[in-house]
Specification:
Distance between the termini: 29 Å
Number of domains: 2
Helix content: 55-70%
Radius of gyration: 21 Å
Shape: elongated
Largest sheet: 2 strands, antiparallel
CATH class of the largest domain: Mainly Alpha
Strand content: under 5%
Length: 254
């Protein structure tokens, strides 16, 4: 699924071009838009927000295939290069790669799943948990580190690890009651052990949380056949999934 961040990045990229060209390009892919003078960026994103993934991907496919032509239309050229690079990285966070002038889904098996990060951030807003602003900030910081130029993959993983840790600690605080075991809130292993002891998670879920946390922790990576960029994207995706699991479990239990 194409998340909101990618749609905003796409709107920023399209803003580089003349209004008439943008209207024709979007209409060509059945994305209806009406753009008023001086409102190109605003009107484009309002049109992209409700548009189906199929139409957005069709538009993205043409943008990727014709990137040389689009670059020739923009001056100075670095504006095209920077916006196109940002769009590329946003797509990676949604599970797509730009390769050989094509947009390819990294894991086609999750094509019908909603954008995980969008769903997670929305669930955090309505959860009533403490520290949700801090958690959301760390999730967004992780994305910014991945998309920065040059990208900071260590910071990307560190921020998402802190988000996961802070979320688990926030849930643990809400599970404290008279007679519940004491624990050290500063230690990850102790926090997830507490969540297991009070019946919030199972032993297998504790192992899963511990494994993902270790995967995104400093010094846990080994040279493999995949790049540092792919490792960062994978680690961030796993940690986001665990954050989503914790929030949804909390909502179900309250």
């Amino acid at each position: 699924m194409i998340g909101s961040r990618t749609r905003y990045s796409l709107a920023q990229f399209l803003e580089l071009h003349e209004t008439a060209f943008v209207v024709v390009l979007m209409n060509k892919h059945n994305i209806r838009t009406s753009i008023e003078d001086g409102r190109l960026l605003t009107d484009v994103i309002q049109s992209l927000r409700p548009t189906s993934d199929e139409k957005v991907l069709s538009l993205l496919d043409e943008i990727v295939r014709t990137s040389r032509d689009l670059r020739a239309r923009v001056n100075p050229k670095y504006r095209h290069d920077e916006r196109f690079s940002d769009l590329h990285r946003c797509l990676q966070l949604d599970g797509y790669i730009v390769e050989n002038k094509k947009v390819t889904q990294i894991d086609p098996s999750i094509s019908d799943a909603p954008p995980l990060e969008d769903d997670l951030l929305e669930a955090l807003k309505t959860s009533g948990l403490p520290d949700v602003d801090e958690i959301a900030k760390k999730i967004n910081d992780s994305s910014e580190s991945f998309r920065s130029s040059p990208p900071n993959y260590n910071a990307c993983l560190n921020d998402i690890r802190v988000a996961l840790e802070t979320l688990a600690r926030a849930i643990a605080i809400t599970r404290q009651a008279s007679g519940s075991p004491s624990y050290d809130q500063t230690k990850w292993g102790v926090v997830v052990s507490f969540l297991k002891q009070v019946g919030f998670i199972t032993q297998e879920e504790e192992k899963g949380l511990a494994g993902v946390y270790s995967f995104v922790s400093p010094g846990s990576h080994r040279p493999l056949s995949i790049s540092e960029e792919q490792m960062a994207r994978l680690g961030r995706s796993l940690a986001l999934g665990m954050c989503w699991f914790l929030v949804k479990s909390y909502q179900s239990a309250t």
